[in-house]
């Protein structure tokens, strides 16, 4: 396997700062609901007659965040195609800055709820835009690593919320206890926005806009290898991209595509949407965001009090980040995406089954069973091992690979919309559900895990090692050029016969 190009790695790592923003923003409420001053400032009762109102508001705080995320995800179907992948990330940064500032300065519940929706919109754009951008910059053999950085950064964002919250917990006399954690959201967003002007645009988007010379220069820079001084691999890949783009344009004309929904006339595109949405729903339906956002209250229910639940929250997310690192560096590009998802779904369902049983028999007892409650904490942690190592990063890789160039921004938008819409539902009803049906709420996710496991097993192809263009063949769509060992000589000859300038490749494809 060729070595990773450092320049490509630097760019995809820097872009992943946006993923830190999403991870932090998505889980910040999980530690804030453990801060006493948050309840005091907004006059939210933690027990007694006012508890029902508190649960409703907490559900709305999470539900509105993910509702905003769902709409933000949908919006990139337009922005990523019209303005570019990089510009979409920059727009997301600006929206996040507004949302974070309003959240940190919230004067009342209504203002806070509005800020959560705005922040959700921004990170909804971010969680779509970053892996889309990373995938289109990555060479085939290392795409799992580069897009997997998105998952690692999500885990880092999750972990940061815990440690920031744990530190602020001990300032128990002022609103700094909860305002500062919200203000921290501004830091990664400002860093990314400031540095993004030095990043290249996606070469595939440039190609779609007819800016072929720029596209070739980006590919040449990002996919260069020390043992390939003539940039043969970059030229082959660019040749493949231009030929596939011409073929896809012809296919688009044959389908009579005028609006984005016209793509659904073709069965292979409907299957791609099924796979993209299936990948993201395998995450949402595993219950991850419910466990993440409400684990502080889950630990409290297990008899753990004080600042320890917030510390456990931080450690849980560190475990999650480590799992994502293993996934990106050791699993996806070696063993594939599909087998990882299957292991992850089965593992999380098993952990939730044990958690449900332990909650049923040991939570709320007059005489606490410390062994049973200890195992309850263990399975919350064992859950994140399976989720982070086998689902979290993998879902974004699958989504970024599943769609052809001209449909990719739309497909990614619809897939992440499905995830955030499901998350809005699950985290919105979670406080009330845990209050009224308790352990039975876990059964919902166990049943959904069975459904997503079946979906992945039956319908998902394996995409590791293939270029984004070659993946078309897995869905029954034509591939213009294969870069395979058997066709190396023929492809070399074609490239040698052409002028080695990117725009000339387009001349050949239009001839």
Describe this protein's structure:
The chain is an all-alpha fold and 511 residues long. It is built from 21 helices and no strands. It has helices at residues 6-15, 17-32, 36-41, 51-82, 85-104, 109-137, 143-169, 176-183, 186-195, 203-208, 212-222, 232-255, 267-284, 288-301, 308-335, 337-362, 370-401, 408-436, 440-459, 488-496, 502-510. The longest helix is centred in the first third of the chain and has 32 residues, at 51-82.
Task: Please count the helical segments.
Answer: 21
Low-pLDDT residue intervals, each spanning 5 or more residues: 499-511
SSE succession: HHHHHHHHHHHHHHHHHHHHH
Termini gap: 35 Å
Helicity level, as a percent range? over 70%
Average pLDDT works out at 85
The main pleated sheet reads as: none
DSSP strand (E) fraction?
under 5%
Shape: globular
Please give the radius of gyration in angstroms: 23 Å
Which structural class do you get from the secondary structure elements? mainly alpha
Record field, number of beta strands? 0
GO molecular function, one term: carbohydrate:proton symporter activity
Keywords: Membrane, Transmembrane, Transmembrane helix, Transport
Subcellular location: Membrane
Protein name: Major facilitator superfamily (MFS) profile domain-containing protein
């Amino acid at each position: 396997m060729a070595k990773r190009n450092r320049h490509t790695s630097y760019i995809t790592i820097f872009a992943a700062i946006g993923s830190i923003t999403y991870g932090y923003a998505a889980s910040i409420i999980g530690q804030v609901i453990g801060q006493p001053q948050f309840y005091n400032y907004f006059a939210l009762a933690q027990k007694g007659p006012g508890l029902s109102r508190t649960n409703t508001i907490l559900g709305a705080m999470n539900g509105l965040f993910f509702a905003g995320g769902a709409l933000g995800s949908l919006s990139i179907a337009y922005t990523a195609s019209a303005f570019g992948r990089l510009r979409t990330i920059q727009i997301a940064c600006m929206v996040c800055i507004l949302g974070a500032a309003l959240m940190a300065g919230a004067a009342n519940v209504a203002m806070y709820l509005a800020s959560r929706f705005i922040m959700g919109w921004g990170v909804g754009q971010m969680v779509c835009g970053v892996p889309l951008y990373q995938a289109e910059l990555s060479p085939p053999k290392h795409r799992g690593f580069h897009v997997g950085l998105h998952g690692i950064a999500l885990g880092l964002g999750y972990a940061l919320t815990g440690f920031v919250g744990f530190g602020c917990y001990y300032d128990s006399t002022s609103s700094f206890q909860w305002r500062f954690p919200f203000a921290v959201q501004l830091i990664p967003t400002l860093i990314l926005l400031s540095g993004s002007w030095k990043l290249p645009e996606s070469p595939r988007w440039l190609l779609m806009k007819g800016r072929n010379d720029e596209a070739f220069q980006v590919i040449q820079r990002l996919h260069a290898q020390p043992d390939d001084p003539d940039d043969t691999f970059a030229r082959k890949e660019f040749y493949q991209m231009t030929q596939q783009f011409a073929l896809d344009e012809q296919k688009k004309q044959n389908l009579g595509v005028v609006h984005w929904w016209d793509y659904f006339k073709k069965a292979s595109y409907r299957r791609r949407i099924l796979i993209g949405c299936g990948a993201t729903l395998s995450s949402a339906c595993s219950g991850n965001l419910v466990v993440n956002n409400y684990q502080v209250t889950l630990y409290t229910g297990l008899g753990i009090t004080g600042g320890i639940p917030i510390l456990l929250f931080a450690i849980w997310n560190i475990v999650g980040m480590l799992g994502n690192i293993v996934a990106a560096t050791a699993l996806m590009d070696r063993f594939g995406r599909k087998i990882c998802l299957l292991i992850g779904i089965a593992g999380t369902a098993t952990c939730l089954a044990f958690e449900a049983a332990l909650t049923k028999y040991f939570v709320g007892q007059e005489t606490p069973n410390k062994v049973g409650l200890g195992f309850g904490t263990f399975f919350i942690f064992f859950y994140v091992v399976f989720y982070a190592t086998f689902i979290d990063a993998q879902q974004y890789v699958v989504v970024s690979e599943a769609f052809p160039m001209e449909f990719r921004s739309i497909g990614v938008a619809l897939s992440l919309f499905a995830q955030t819409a499901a998350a809005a539902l699950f985290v919105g009803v979670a406080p009330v559900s845990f209050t009224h049906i308790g352990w039975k709420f876990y059964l919902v996710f166990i049943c959904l895990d069975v459904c997503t496991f079946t979906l992945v097993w039956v319908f998902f192809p394996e995409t590791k090692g293939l270029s984004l263009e070659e993946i078309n063949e897995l869905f029954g769509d034509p591939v213009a050029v294969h870069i395979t060992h058997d066709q190396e000589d023929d492809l070399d000859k074609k490239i040698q016969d052409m002028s080695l300038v990117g725009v000339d490749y387009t001349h050949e494809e239009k001839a």
